[in-house]
Every structure is written in structure tokens, then in C-alpha cells.
């Protein structure tokens, strides 16, 4: 029973519709999946119907930005009541924070590029099937190179920073728990120091802040990082998950690593999903 618990759809920044996700999961032989769109659960009405049609079991999920000192971590929320008011308020706040970054980017770039217009951008509707997000899709529509991760240099070059900080890891975990869910640290190998002692110390610190598990199996993780994460979870009775972080054709290749549904073929029997139930 193969499992992929970290997939994105066109409702955030993937090129895959909910229907395409369900069909691809079935084609690859996956029987249990979760879609964790960035700061939104809007795909779920379509997704539930699509997965039922294809005979795929579906765990409700969402990927949430959280502040951890001077960096941003991603927390995967599994098994939440998707209608929970506090959870939806957090997701809406995060979505506004992210969109403000693009609003500020287009305003800054328009001073150097006459073909970019903040007023035009305000009324612009992105093409979800191209993947990415509104700001990047607008730049693409104007002919600017905007593939990921190269497109991120625009934000760096213009010094674009968040207007308001995200909620802390501790607060995000608390909201997830109040919504009846579990908080899992996403792709720690990409966010935490990879030196053995520092990696484990950071996992211990984050456990104290409320994480219930770790995404141990991930396309870019080295064998050492995977083993360290698995050992830590086993020692502390934490959840163990696996995810491809597929965005369809968007961000399919990053730093030589390919991300697609099935990039991590983890058998459910090798995971720990205690307390997380499919819808």
C-alpha cells in the first residue's frame, strides 16, 4: 500500500488539478494520499469526489508557513477539521502575507520596467494550469523568465520582505491541535542544519514546540538525514510520514532532484500514521 502524503494542486501552485492528482495516484498504484496545498484547503470538495471515483483513500491535509526565529518552516497539518474557524483564519492570514509579497514585488519592479503595472496586476487572474502563484504567473505573462526556483531572485534582488511575520511554530501547532489534527515538520533536510548533532537538536527543540511527527521520507533527503529523522521519531514515538512534494510540471526539478507523485515510494507499513484517519 504505497503512500504519498505531500502533493499540491492548482489550488495553490501546482499544475495538477484535483482530478489529475487522483488519476495519477491510481495510475502509480498509490492507495493513500494527502494533498497539502500551501495555506489553503479549497481543493478538498473536488478532491474528495475525485478520490472516491478512483478508489483512493484521502487524508485531509494542508501545508502551513510558520515562523521559527529568523526563518520560515513548513508544517503539514493532517487530519484536521477543515472547517475549523481558527485554522481557516490562520490559512487566510498566511495567504494574505504571501500575496502581499507579490504585490510589493510588482510595485517595486514597475519602477524599472514600464510594462509592469500594479493596477493591472491587482485585476490580473492567473492561469492555474501554469502552476506557481499570481505574482510569478503575471511575470510569465509579460515574458519574464519565471521558472522555480530561479524566479525567487526577483524577491531577493528587490529586497522584498513580509509585511507581517507568520505565526510561530508553537502557535501553528496549537491551532492544528485545536482543530483535531497532527502537526508534522515538512522536509526537515531542506530547512534544518544537516550536521548530525545540530539536526537532532533542532528536532528536539521543535518537538518541544508541538510537532507530532516528521516527514522522514522526501525526494531530496540524503540517506543519513532520513535515518536520523526515523531514529528520532522512533525514540520519541512521533509520526513518520512520506511525501513527494509534487507540484506537477511546476518546480519539477530543483537542484538536480525530481519531484513527482511517486518520487518517494514509501509503504504505509513503514510509516507511523497513528491517529490520522482518511476522510
TrEMBL record:
Gene3D superfamilies found in the cross-reference section: 1.10.150.650, Metal-dependent hydrolases
Protein name: PHP domain-containing protein
Protein's organism: Fumia xinanensis
Any one GO molecular-function label of the UniProt entry: 5'-3' RNA exonuclease activity
Coiled-coil regions listed: none
Domain Polymerase/histidinol phosphatase N-terminal: 3-68
InterPro entries noted in UniProt: PHP_dom, PHP_domain, Pol/His_phosphatase_N, Pol/histidinol_Pase-like
Pfam families: PHP
